[in-house]
């Protein structure tokens, strides 16, 4: 029952997706002030370590256990009971770890909303609650036989589960924890743009494993996901670059942000659309997410590193675009252009519920953690920087 080629392929893709988590850390670390560089990178590693344990204890079972009323999985796989090296195509244990790296990456993205001001202890509690109450149910809805899957919603590799959830959760968390000291009045320029670009490059590279690996086999579907991933990223990078150029200068951070926007948007569609559609999806996401970032700045929202603008809004764009551009010849499901307008309406319902659930539940979790433990470091610690205040370390010049 085990396909050794598929197993080798998914093993490699799993390692590539794992590399995306430190990629997020480097990307975020380069964008904050130097006194918080170590802190931001460390938060991504902490997120991955925390979720790795949570996933084997209960997260996998809640996501992929027996469906309970379309809402969450049962606990028959808690502590990986009954999960072994056998499986259909790939070993069951490999599927567990492939899904685990997705969950760890998602929590790392959420740290955008609390950059430079969260206590590690509070983040650990928040991260455990968030993964259990937000990520795991969403994964079950889309991939574990939940209501979204039953409705026919399409999410090939995590447009709703990973990106909408992390983006809108980051926004909710930012609203609860409050703005950084001096936000809007003092300069908060990136401390290391080359480091951020390196992080973005690792994300682009890892995304091939993220999307192509979701085919769970080394086949034509994986090849399609691979090429549309790259095309959408390239289109997103160029679209954002041009949009920023119209308003001023074509910055490198904007360019890589556009690439990530294109990657986010193609994620739910990678197994359902063709390369020409990927150009439209990537370019549209680059412009759409750029507009969302401009809106955030104008409104004075300190969702520090724009997970909402790029992942949240890019995830919405991609999920809806999937309902427009899906073709039966690739993924077996038609979208609006291929003669099935109902699919677009299904995507709208799925997006609406995921946005409301991820934002609302995250806001409630953050409020509870803030009331019990306090989410935020003291003003003195924030002024000194979290590298020293939380880790007792500093970047040497």
Describe this structure in words.
The protein is mainly alpha-helical. It has one domain (4-204, 213-390): Ammonium transporter fold. It has 15 helices and 2 strands. A two-stranded antiparallel ribbon has the order 1-2. Strand 1 (67-68) and strand 2 (72-73) form a beta hairpin. Helix 1 (4-31) packs antiparallel against helix 7, helix 4 runs antiparallel to helix 13 (341-372) and helix 8 (220-247) packs across helix 10. It is globular. It starts with a helix and ends in a 6-residue tail after the last helix. The mean pLDDT is 97.
In CATH, the topology is named Ammonium transporter fold
Number of helices: 15
Q: In total, how many beta strands?
A: 2
- Strand arrangement in the largest pleated sheet: 1-2
What would you call the shape? globular
What is the CA-atom radius of gyration, in angstroms?
A: 20 Å
Encode the helix/strand succession as letters: HHEEHHHHHHHHHHHHH
Query: Sheet with the most strands?
Result: 2 strands, antiparallel
CATH superfamily: Ammonium transporter AmtB like domains
User: What percent of the residues sit in helical stretches (DSSP H or I)?
Assistant: over 70%
- Can you give the mean pLDDT? 97
